[in-house]
Amino acid sequence: MQLVLDRAALLLVDVQRDALHPDGALGRAGQAPSAAEVSLVVDAWGRLVDLMREAGRPIVWVKTGLRADFADTTYAPIWLERRLAEVGPFFIEGSWGAGLMDGMDAAPDDYVVTKKGHSAYDNTHLDRLLTNLGVSQCIVAGGGVTDSIAETARTGGRLGYEQFVVEDALYPPTAVEMHAPRKQAEVVSLQDVFAAASAEPEPAQPGPDYAMVLVDMQNDFMNAERPNVLYGFSDPMPEEKRLNIVENTQKLSAAMRERGWPVIYVRVVRRQDNSDDVHSRTHRRARPLPPGVTHCAIGTWGAEMVDELTPEGDDYVVEKKGGSGFGYTPLHRILRNLNAQRLIMTGGAVTGCVWATALDGVALGYDITVIADATYPPDSPDLPSLAEWCAVRPADEVLAGL
Q1: Is residue 284 predicted with pLDDT exceeding 80?
Q2: Other C-beta atoms within 10 Å of 396: how many?
Q3: For the chain, which end, N or C, has fewer CB atoms within 10 Å of the first or last residue's CB respectively?
Q4: Which residues are CB-neighbours of 293 under 8 A, at least 6 positions away?
């Protein structure tokens, strides 16, 4: 990978007194780096900060801040127990030890993210922040190598970021466990980062103008003989309306394929016993199908796409277990791989899976347009409510815009 500062942000992870200062938690336990080692790494961080500020690139200070009783932490219990036994309480929110190391100061234009575990991405807004900033590469410095740096590299890589861990800007500086981040990120030196600042970057690869996401266009959602109709939980879809939804979806997907833009089918597929269902318990109680009756069960006709909307050779198929197409699925990463940021969405239901997918998608930073006359139930009175969150437009208008 080529490091390009114009696409990068600097992540400074856990550069806090409890980890480095002689009066901090690790220092009191005799586990902090030596004064000479700390001086070197603080100097390295300062050089990186100066470089990024001069280049006008984002600097994100990722701090750990925990309750005194550690009830809010996401650390592995065995790791936390050992660390508390060795060093006592650390990174307590608002304490002196949780503050940034002496000589390290966040500027007003910098960004601060507070985490509760090791990874900078775990249950934080970092992914959305980087999306808002147009960042695709991360320069990672700080510590510790075997926990916070390794986990930030792993989870950031899973989200599709190109990550560059700066080997001589880490603590402990003599860590022999660099194999962990090496498996997840590029390991570079300060010299490499500064060389990248003057290098001629390769041109960025543009993504498609749009990706199309078809949500739950399946027999057990659109067929008049589906279980929820047979047991009185839904009304059958009028055939004329069903055909209109299918026709509009066909026209849009054909236009996408003609332009070489991705078409992604998202479908529900669950075990017959529903034990892998991730809908809320309230949702499941609202439609209590008899024992042994499951819609969209693995291997059944009901779980298949309707005949008129069969995926084609280059299309993508994402399987889910609940409502949102982004929930416990690779959809977000697939769109990242494709560099697709604008989505056209069809399918249903307007207050169910389309609603959940659209709201999760806009929260992740996608520009979403839901096709009003290619969603079900037809003519839903809830479309204006969905329009509070994303664009809702008719198929012909979108096709003309393409």
Answers
A1: no
A2: 12
A3: N
A4: 227, 231
Among positive and negative, which fits the CA dihedral 391, 396, 400, 402?
positive
pLDDT tens readout for residues 44-75: 999 999 999 999 999 999 999 999 999 999 99
Distance, in Å, from the CA atom of 94 to the CA atom of 207, rounded to the nearest integer, reads 43
Number of residues that this document lists for the chain:
402
Q: Give 176's pLDDT tier (boundaries 50, 70, 90).
A: low
pLDDT band at 260 (very low <50, low <70, confident <90, very high): very high
- Identify whether the C-beta of residue 202 lies closer than 8 Å to the C-beta of residue 2: yes
- In one-letter notation, the amino acid at residue 326 is F
Predicted model pTM = 0.91
CA distance 366 to 172: 38
CB 304 within 8 A of CB 297: no
Contact 258, 320 (CB under 8 A): no
Catalytic residues: 216, 320, 353
Confidence of residue 84 (pLDDT cuts 50, 70, 90): very high
Give the residue from 163, 242, 171 showing the smallest Cα distance to 24. Answer: 171
Q: Is 82 exposed, middle or buried (0-12, 13-18, 19+ CB in 10 A)?
A: exposed
pLDDT one-digit tens code per residue, 185-206: 999 999 999 999 888 877 777 8
DSSP per residue, 130-186: HHHTT--EEEEEEE-IIIIIHHHHHHHHHTT-EEEEEEEEEESTT-S-THHHHTTSE
Q: Name the 3-class secondary structure at 277.
A: coil
Cβ 368 vs Cβ 390: under 8 Å? yes
